[in-house]
Design goal:
The structure is a homodimer. By secondary structure, the first copy, chain A, is mostly helical. Chain A is 55% helix and 11% strand. In chain A, the strands form three sheets. A three-stranded parallel beta sheet of chain A has the order 3-4-5, with helices on both faces. In chain A, strands 6-7-8 form a three-stranded mixed beta sheet. In chain A, helix 8 packs parallel to helix 13. Chain A is elongated, with a radius of gyration of 21 Å.
């Protein structure tokens, strides 16, 4: 995700300093005009806005608060924009730790996948101070399309988690409904058309219809990643005191898919587990 | 549902013979030009197409196969169109029992609620012989808008059950997501807007947004009725051998709502149970 987002910033004319553990994307972006730095601290000392796009909470903690991290830099003008999907509670902790250094922070996770990153059509869900949001807005606009300020720091992350609940559970509902339909002998194409025309209609149904019809589940958004998000959801829900009975079942189904070695499938591939439970044999169309 | 559907048939110029256990709708329709009959058998003897709209499987069995039922009539031209949401397995049994009498049957459950019935915009999901479907199509067009022939008898009912899985589970997902959002201190209106713009977007989210914002859950489609449908879903799923782990949890949540005396709420009111589990106190806006 980070590479296409950075490319869009370069294309919008922003001078860019990049750092990553992987040298491939760094070399590519340097070839396109970016400058390289060798640690988060070095980026933080030279930049006005530092954007992180990392796998999970510990990575963000390391980059922000670890050795050679943002916290060691001397730059009281710095705005730290974390666009990773991590625990919003960790975001709040990181922001608090950076505050004495004068660093202001936004949490700004995205939805829309690699396609949205490449095409600069990401939906960006932002939490943090409104004045800081207004300062960063033009930079967001170079990477995304629907940019929403949702409240104080953590609000972006909590909204992303709410989004991930709905998507995981709705994809599982589609999996259960289509497995029942298959065992009842229905034509799946006709069924999807009839379902899409009523109250069961959704963006998941529309976007994943080609996967269901071809019965191939190339990502897209991987089960592994959505399983990570379900862990963040349950962690946040427990911290806030919110029992999530349906999401918990879906988390276990996603867990079972990983156990079976299917973590690399698109998240709509949860249907393959439900078909297996029902003894449905479906062959991918070629 | 039956009354507005019958009214639309009268308005389209079809001569109508009506029968119901409730005298109110019968009197009203007779006032508008319908003829009254005193038993299903009497309707079946005079009509070319007999349409039933009944609460559940046993009601359809009684009207079709019981004393003074359709099976006792002598009319080999009759087409029996059952538009009730019942067990598709019972539909298949009824069709089989009526076959020796020359009665042809379609199962044609609807989606769209009383509003769709009044405005003749129902989505009608039809199973049965295609030639019989073609004969009845103009009659369906007087009552609905999206009319889909899905396969042999029972296909309408199975599609409706698939529809009801997705709607119940997605409304529960919305309930869990919005409860997490509320406890995280998010503004629900902004959250719904951000969610609606991404992969979490759905017709449920769009149609139920006013309920979530006002925190009033006037039906709409009652929890009592959706709970009945969840029973039909689990019954059909067991008969076909389809484990439905997520739907089963949602069925229990709908059951809990009934235990608490909230079966009369709109099905989006499942959120009130999730809020209660999380200790969220929300007052309805006036």
């Amino acid at each position: 995700m980070g590479r296409p987002m950075a490319r869009n910033l370069l294309m919008a004319g922003y001078p860019l300093i990049v750092h990553s553990r992987s040298q491939g994307p760094v070399k590519e972006l340097v070839g396109q005009g970016a400058k390289e730095a060798h640690a988060p601290k070095a980026v933080a000392e030279q930049a006005e806005i530092l954007i992180a796009m990392l796998p999970n909470s510990p990575d963000v903690e390391l980059v922000a608060l670890g050795k050679n991290g943002i916290i060691e830099a001397d730059n009281r003008r710095l705005i730290f924009v974390d666009m990773s999907t991590i625990s919003p509670i960790v975001s709040q902790k990181v922001a608090k730790a950076l505050e004495p250094k004068g660093v202001r922070m936004l949490d700004a996770p995205v939805s829309g996948g690699e396609k949205g990153a490449i095409e600069a059509t990401l939906s960006i869900m932002v939490g943090g101070d409104k004045a800081v949001f207004d300062t960063v807005l033009p930079v967001f606009q170079a990477m995304g399309k629907t940019i929403t300020h949702l409240g104080p720091l953590g609000a972006g992350g909590f909204t992303k988690l709410a989004n991930q609940i709905i998507v995981a559970v709705n994809l599982t509902a589609l999996g259960e409904a289509l497995t029942l339909a298959a065992k009842a002998g229905l034509n799946i194409e006709l069924t999807l058309k009839a379902l899409g025309g009523g109250l069961a209609g959704s963006r998941c149904l529309d976007q994943k219809t080609p996967n269901y019809l071809a019965h191939t589940f190339n990502p897209g958004f991987k089960i592994d990643l959505h399983y990570k998000d379900l862990g963040l959801i349950m962690e946040a829900a427990r911290a806030l005191g919110v029992p999530l009975p349906t999401t918990a079942v879906v988390q276990e189904l996603f867990n079972a898919l990983r156990v079976k070695g299917r973590g690399g499938l698109d998240h709509s591939g949860v249907i393959t587990l439900l078909e297996e439970l029902a003894g449905v044999e479906v062959k991918a169309k070629q």
